[in-house]
Write a structure and sequence with these properties.
This protein is mainly beta. The chain is globular.
Length: 786
């Protein structure tokens, strides 16, 4: 026998595994006694994972692919991928046809309970927190009733758990109380665990916010209340009697309907460690659906940001290198979606559709042990003499060089409001690129601290944000790092003596460029308390402008601020900040300034007066004013023409067609922001007869003596309400046709331009104080603008 043949025979005898394919197949119609081949697929994903372990145990290091054939996979427990299973792909044939679910199909025998409600016994070993009927999540019995357009919590009421209402409940124990933070910085959730001696409910919970305050007096909602089961689609599970009560939606056939109970908190975990990372895991083309709500789980503070967080998600990744989640859909998940926690390197989250989920979309969050001299509460800090002054992280238990690319994220934060489309905390070098993020209760993208910078936010489209919270923006950050103290005089002293302090944690510059932002209830870009070492350029800000507060070493240049302008707040004398070559539409709205930074100049203002106001502070010496001459703003092209005065100041045009998702399937369905209203008003020089729609009201300038006489005004000025939609913000405020707005936020309103300018300055507060002239009298009105 030839040596080559002998060698081949030896290999076949000793290593028979190489004869087998490392492709494993799973099908809902399979059988776990099968071989796992394409024509003999397994039934369960768990069985395929065990088969992959067998390959690794006999020394086979080749890549393994688990193919999920079309159908639904209801998990009994989460899928766990440890370090031993490196070089593994789990892929579906089509995300629309392959679904991994954290739910259990319920076998229910319904009987009539009353005129509308049916009841069925449930196996006492089954515990679920959400009910699904024919693929639609139903409504846990609540007060007030669910209203998609009802604002906070999709319906809220001041009397949600008033004494009178509590007395109407036979057994309040187990009822969930949801409420907003008094300042609307987030939300709180509680379980009623009993009643005190005064008949007041005992609330357990409230750990979901790191800036503790009283509950909002109005924005409250209760659920899991049997007595509130009073409308179609509502349900209630009595855990003592194991009876499920349900008011069917219209035209539902209970006999043929498929009922599911959501039973798992997480669906997939990729977990290794720094010492033994899990490598080269790829998850693709799968829909992940149905996980439990997690707002009552253990939370931890994210340093001194406003956040606490549940360190978990539908997909949880830790101790990973070169892993990816791509081309998946994540929908109807109760808590966080994809959570990248602790030590992770080169993790990619790309091409995913994330929507209709309870908490945050994509999170990159490190471990507090990596932070030098950490503090965890707003008023807490480490004295300078006790502080670790070495720059950078203490260890490497944090995400680094990871990316969220080309994800379509919307309608997240459906349950929890202290959330974001993308959240970054205690991380380094995270890239957030070409994502479309909208319809969220808080910021679209949030960076919770300065540790350790180096992030790049580029080509994102972020809008319709801050829908149920307040005092932040479409992009929001904090920098309450080692240098930052809640005692202003002390911070002035130590930063003056140690000008490098802001770099101790923010060791790398975070760059925000070529994004499109619009926030109608705050700032488009909000660099809040202490956010330092940022470079912002080539951003199109459509409504809320740019705010910089209490930080150092930030350069803001070559940005366009439509409808708004620059908001410098509480600057230090030696901030080193730069604001130059920007196009602004309003005056600088400064607050508590000790200094004006390194350079504020070469900016283009909308008019001569706003420029003059800026020059009173000895800034903007070379700035000018005038029409920026946008090329085609009605079609979202805010590049300026060759004759624009902005170009003479050094402004450079940037692309207007690169924002948001790039996948064709996403571009076909992704929303884009509405054009700013003020632009249409001023386009023709603020035409006097122009009718403008705003907050559901039709507005017109008062310009003639005849109009002055008709409405009994003291002068021919003000904004006429020419019509009001009943269910609009203006209608709910109580504005009426024939009213004339004469004062807003204690400032005279001469015309629509004045009104919009004032509104832009206070929109972050969530309300606007108006004085209207009605029937020859002044009437004060508070307009809640979200």
């Amino acid at each position: 026998m030839k040596k080559k043949s002998i060698r081949l025979l030896f290999i076949l005898l000793i290593f028979p595994v190489i004869l087998y394919s490392n492709d494993i197949y799973v099908s809902p119609n399979g059988d776990n006694s099968n071989s796992g081949k394409e024509n003999e697929p397994f039934l369960d994903i768990e069985k395929a994972i065990l088969k992959a372990f067998e390959f690794r145990k006999i020394g086979d290091t080749r890549p393994i692919t688990i193919h999920l054939m079309p159908g639904e996979y209801h998990l009994n427990r989460l899928v766990h991928i440890p370090a031993e299973l490196g070089d593994l792909t789990i892929t579906g044939q089509d995300a629309k046809r392959v679904k991994i679910k954290g739910s259990m199909v319920l076998d229910l025998a319904w009987k009539k309970y009353d005129q509308h409600v049916y009841v069925a016994p449930v196996n006492e070993n089954i515990s679920f927190d959400q009910l699904v009927v024919n693929g639609e999540i139903q409504i846990l019995a609540r007060y007030p009733n669910y209203d998609e357009n009802g604002g906070h919590f999709q319906g809220h009421a001041a009397d949600a758990y008033s004494d009178a209402r509590v007395k109407s409940w036979k057994n309040p124990v187990g009822i969930i109380v949801n409420a907003m933070h008094k300042a609307e910085w987030g939300d709180y959730h509680f379980i009623i665990t009993g009643m005190d001696e005064n008949g007041k409910p005992i609330l357990t919970g409230g750990h979901q916010n790191n800036r503790h305050a009283e509950l909002h007096p109005k924005y409250r909602m209760v659920e899991n209340v049997f007595e509130e089961l009073d409308s179609p689609g509502e349900w209630y599970l009595d855990k003592d009697t194991h009876l499920l009560y349900y008011w069917p939606v219209t035209d539902l056939d209970l006999g043929s309907a498929v009922f599911e109970g959501i039973v798992l908190k997480s669906l997939l975990e990729i977990s290794g460690s720094r010492e033994r990372p899990v490598r080269n895991i790829r998850i693709s083309n799968i829909t992940f659906e149905y996980t439990q709500r997690t707002f009552m789980e253990e939370y931890e503070p994210l340093l001194r940001s406003d956040w606490t967080i549940y360190r978990g998600g539908a997909v949880f990744i830790t101790g990973a290198e070169n892993c990816s989640i791509e081309d998946c859909e994540f929908v109807n998940l109760g808590g966080n979606v994809v959570f990248t926690s602790g030590y992770n390197r080169n993790v990619s989250i790309s091409g995913n559709h994330i929507h209709d989920c309870g908490a945050s979309g994509i999170l990159f969050v490190g471990e507090p042990s990596a932070v030098r001299s950490p503090s965890f509460q707003y008023k807490e800090y480490v004295p300078l003499e006790e502080m670790d002054t070495q720059p950078g992280p203490k260890n490497d238990l944090y995400p680094k060089d990871c990316i969220a690319y080309n994800n379509l994220i919307h309608r997240t934060g459906r349950t929890e409001k202290q959330t974001a489309g993308v959240q970054i905390a205690m991380s380094m070098g995270i890239t957030i690129s070409h994502n479309s993020i909208y319809d969220v209760p808080r910021a679209g993208i949030n960076i919770g601290d300065g540790t350790w910078g180096g992030h790049v936010l580029e080509y994102n489209d972020v809008f319709n944000t801050v829908l149920e919270t307040g005092d932040h923006g479409s992009f929001n950050s904090w920098g309450r790092d080692r240098f930052w103290l809640p005692i202003r005089d002390k911070m002035d002293e130590i930063t003056s003596n140690n000008p490098e302090m802001p770099y101790w944690d923010a060791v790398n510059t975070t760059v925000i460029h070529d994004n499109r932002f619009r926030c109608d209830h705050g700032w488009d870009i909000d660099l809040d308390d202490g956010s330092s070492n940022y470079h912002l350029y080539n951003n199109l800000c459509l409504n809320g402008g740019i705010k910089l507060r209490e930080g150092f070493y930030r350069t803001v240049e070559n940005n366009i601020m439509v409808n708004n302008g620059f908001h410098p707040h509480a600057w230090f004398a030696n901030s080193g900040d730069v604001f130059r070559r920007n196009i602004v539409s309003a005056e600088h709205r400064e607050y508590r300034m000790l200094g004006w930074g390194k350079e504020i100049d070469y900016n283009l203002f909308a008019d001569e007066q706003t420029l003059a106001n800026a020059r009173e502070h000895d800034i903007d010496t070379h700035s000018t004013f005038g029409d920026p001459q946008f090329m085609d703003p009605q079609n979202y092209d805010f590049r300026v023409k060759d004759t624009s005065p902005a170009l003479k100041l050094g402004f450079v045009n940037f692309a207007m067609d690169s924002f948001g998702v790039v996948k064709p399937a996403f571009k076909a369905i992704a929303k884009i922001p509405e054009l700013p209203l003020m632009l249409s008003v001023i386009a023709d020089g603020q035409a006097d007869e122009q009718i403008v729609e705003w907050m559901g009201a039709k507005l017109k300038n008062i310009t003639t003596q005849g109009e002055r006489s008709a409405y009994g005004l003291s002068k021919a000025a003000g904004v006429l309400i020419a019509g009001v939609e009943t269910n609009s913000i203006a209608g709910k405020t109580g504005l009426q046709s024939g009213d004339v707005i004469i004062i807003a936020d204690d400032k005279d309103v001469e015309n629509i331009k004045d009104l919009f300018s004032i509104y832009q300055g206070v929109s972050w507060k969530g309300k606007l104080n108006l004085v209207i002239f009605r029937n020859q009298s002044e009437v004060k009105v508070v307009m809640v603008i979200k």
